[in-house]
Amino acid sequence: MGNGTEHVNPTTETAKSAPAAASNGNPSFHDVSATISGIVERRDTPLWWWIAFGISATMTLGLLVQIAWLFWTGIGIWGNNIPVGWGFPIVNFVFWVGIGHAGTLISAILFLLRQRWRTSINRFAEAMTIFAVICAGLFPAIHVGRVWAIYWMFPLPNQMEMWPNFRSALMWDVFAVGTYFTASVLFWYTGLVPDWATLRDRARGWRQKVYGILALGWRGGNRQWKHYEMAYLLLAGVATPLVLSVHSVVSTDFATSMVFGWHSTIFPPYFVAGAIFSGFGMVTTLAILARALYPPVRDFMTLDTFDKMAKILMLTGMMVGYAYIIEFFTAWYSGNEYEQYVFINRAFGPYAVSYWIMFACNVIVPQLFWSKKLRRSLPVLFIASILVNVGMWFERFVIVISLHRDFLPSSWEMFKPTAFDIGFLAGSFGLFLTLFLLFLRFVPMVAMAEVKGVLPQADPHANGHHDRGGKEGGR
Amino acid sequence: MSATTSGRAAVETGAARVHGALARFSGPGELLRAAEEVRDAGYREFDCHSPFPIHGMDAAMGEKRSRLSWFVAACALFGFAGAVALQTWTSVDALPVVVAGKPFFSHVAFFPITFALTVLCSVVGAVVGLTFFIRQQYTHPVFHSDSFSASGSDDGFFISVLAVDGMFDREATAAFLREIGGTNVELLEET
Asked: In whole angstroms, what is the distance from residue A60 CA to residue A211 CA?
């Protein structure tokens, strides 16, 4: 065999990577480990982190105090009334579940589509998914009023021989969101296993033991990798329909009810598009912040990544805009005056301001991204991504609050949020940010093994023994 | 664990119970070609360690496709059947209540939960199955190598040929690994 000559190529990697790493182009394998692990390993937590953590943890504590007061007093502390029985808690629930969807789209669908750029943001986005679903799950749980009976939603054998009604959309929600949370956590953890191993091998003492346990004794042999990759592929495969199904099920909470403006077959695709739209908005906001606060990750979260995220924002924004318009068209075309009234009332009734905030933020703002220059401008993208989430929160507000004028004018009632409504919303942001800050501090925020796998020198045929083309990424 | 150093000396100081021989290669391409050579030389019990999965390594090692997918398929089937059984029994048999005029056995209304439980069992099966399939163990002879511990999950590419392989011979295997481009060749002691 042509041994020796073929293998004497030890300088190739360093020769390629050393200047490249300096010029922000192509880091070496070790650069990836050192840069990302370095963020987790540094002992001196930056001052901004403590300040941000202090604020968000305080907000979380405020949330816990409010929950305690809610349990003590009852849901009368909110502005919910009859006919607006759902109010802010369900607005917030749908908002937070939607945020999560971008993470699953990035980790599962873009993986199956072999989109290499996802490796720089997938860890990040998956973490966001988990924390958003935690915030989401909180709201229906505390909204039930009788929290001590919440276990009735699970099919547990009991002395009353009662069982949940599985033909109800609210039970579908319990299972869809519960599955979504579990799948997201397991997917995230599986992706983390090789990175925990990297941290383990760089650490000493008790840290090494902790990372070693988290890494499940990972030793990187191909006999492990082949099962690992199969598991990852399967997880991506089953998570892909979850992206579409979870928010579809959430939309059936509305669509299976006999309420004008809700009882509509457009709801599942419309909700899914909106969920991905808002989720990408949140990923963009958080990624721009992380990039500003952690300069080392700039080599990984490049402008190209943001350019692609802006394109997805524009695409899903237009899908959402299409849904807004087609809802109006369908109401007109149905010839049903009650259906028509709901939509006219949304756009021109007492809550018209929220409708037009929604429309401006979700339909007009993403149109900025036709311009490549604006897609690559982080300040523009940052402001637009926040506006997107403002708009998407108001979308859910518009849908839920349209209950205020229901079937009989005699039962119409305006919805006025109380201080607790605002407080719970703020508190949920506090909880989300607290968890996210802990993630940034203690977990590698970029998937190191995956980034290494898509570097040019990771291609086993890259050193010129074979032609360089034809290698698809990702595996 | 004797601190095995690099080079020939390590092979000669090998202890009584040897797990295998470990050699380092300079990059993913080198590892892939070395794996082909080890396979062609007739070894079966060996593994290629890399910080990320390498495209084409299964073929280079002569490894079969992972069977984890069959295990996960079984889990999915269990989830599906369990969900159908749970909903049917509770809604038709245990507590038949007419709600919204839907039939007791309402396959359309049962679909979302059936789907969710199928997915739930698949993902749990995939992760639990993975820990078995990768032969998860916290202590492993490869970790006794300082070279492996320092770079195996960073930027090191290694081949370990196991002593249980019929062809394994301390001197000959070590020499072979060196011949195909391996450096830092060392013997791994059993735990």
From this structure: 28
- B62 backbone φψ class: left, alpha, beta (φ>0; ψ -120 to 50): left
Q: Are B134 and A198 in contact (CB under 8 A)?
A: no
Q: Tell me how far apart the alpha carbons of residues B159 and B146 are, in angstroms, rounded to a whole number.
A: 15
DSSP per-residue letters across B173-186:
HHHHHHHTT-EEEE
Task: Look at residue A411 and tell me whether its pLDDT is greater than 60.
Answer: yes
Cα-to-chain-centroid distance, residue A319: 18
What lies within 8 Å, CB to CB, of B114 at 6+ separation is: B80, B83, B84, B87
Taking all residues of chain A, what is their mean pLDDT, rounded to a whole number?
A: 89
Q: For chain B, how far is it from start to end, CA to CA, in angstroms?
A: 8
Mutate to test the interface with B, among A167, A174, A211 (most CBs of B within 10 A): A167
> How far, in whole angstroms, is CA A441 from its chain's centroid?
19
Lowest mean pLDDT across A16-25, A179-188, B145-154 = A16-25
Which string of DSSP letters, residue by residue, matches A243-301?
Answer: HHHHHHHHHHHHHTS--TTTS-TTHHHHHHHHHHHHHHHHHHHHHHHHHHH-GGGGGTS
Q: What is the DSSP string of A5-20?
A: TTT--THHHHHHHHHH
Output the DSSP codes for A103-154.
HHIIIIIHHHTT-GGGGGTHHHHHHHHHHHHHHHHHHHHHHTS-GGGGGGGS
ipTM of the complex: 0.89
User: Which are the contacts of A103, defined by CB distance < 8 A and separation ≥ 6?
Assistant: A122, A125, A126, A127, A128, A129, A130, A132, A184, A279, A283
- A472 forms beta bridges with none
Closest Cα in chain B, distance from residue A220 (Å)? 5
Instruction: State which H helix or E strand residue A65 sits in.
Output: helix A47-73
Count of CA atoms in the C-beta half-sphere (13 A) of B121:
18
Which residues numbered 151-180 in A keep a CB inside 8 Å of some CB on B? 155, 161-168, 171-172, 175-176, 178-179
CA distances from A15 to A19, A21, A300, B1 (A): 7, 11, 20, 35
What pTM does this model have?
Answer: 0.90
CA atoms within 13 A on the CB side of A374: 15
User: CA geometry: angle at B156 spanning B153 and B158, to 5°?
Assistant: 105
Alpha-carbon span A323 to B94, nearest angstrom: 42
| Residue whose tokens read 């028509």 | A340
CB-based contact B74:B89 (threshold 8 Å)? no
Q: HSE on the CB side for A130, CA within 13 Å?
A: 19
Distance of CA A308 to the CA centre of its chain: 16
- Supply the pLDDT for residue A20: 34
CB contact under 8 A, B65 and A226: yes
| A9 — pLDDT class (breaks 50, 70, 90) | very low
Show contacts of B171-174: CB within 8 Å, 24+ apart.
B171/B11, B173/B21, B173/B43, B174/B8, B174/B11, B174/B21, B174/B23
> What angle is formed at CA B63 by the lines to CA B60 and CA B68, rounded to 5 degrees?
135
Residue ranges, chain B, pLDDT below 50: 1-15
Q: Are A147 and A69 spatial neighbours (Cβ–Cβ below 8 Å)?
A: no
Residue identified by tokens 């941000």 is A52
Is-contact A162 B95, C-beta < 8 A? yes
Start-end of H helices in A335-410: 337-348, 352-359, 372-375, 378-401
- Mutant choice from B40, B134, B165, B176 vs A, greatest count of A C-beta within 10 A: B134
**What is the CA angle A303-A309-A312, rounded to 5?**
150
The beta-strand segments (E) located in A6-81 are none
What is the 8-class DSSP label of residue B23? E
What is the rounded distance in angstroms from the CA atom of residue A301 to the CA atom of residue A230? 27
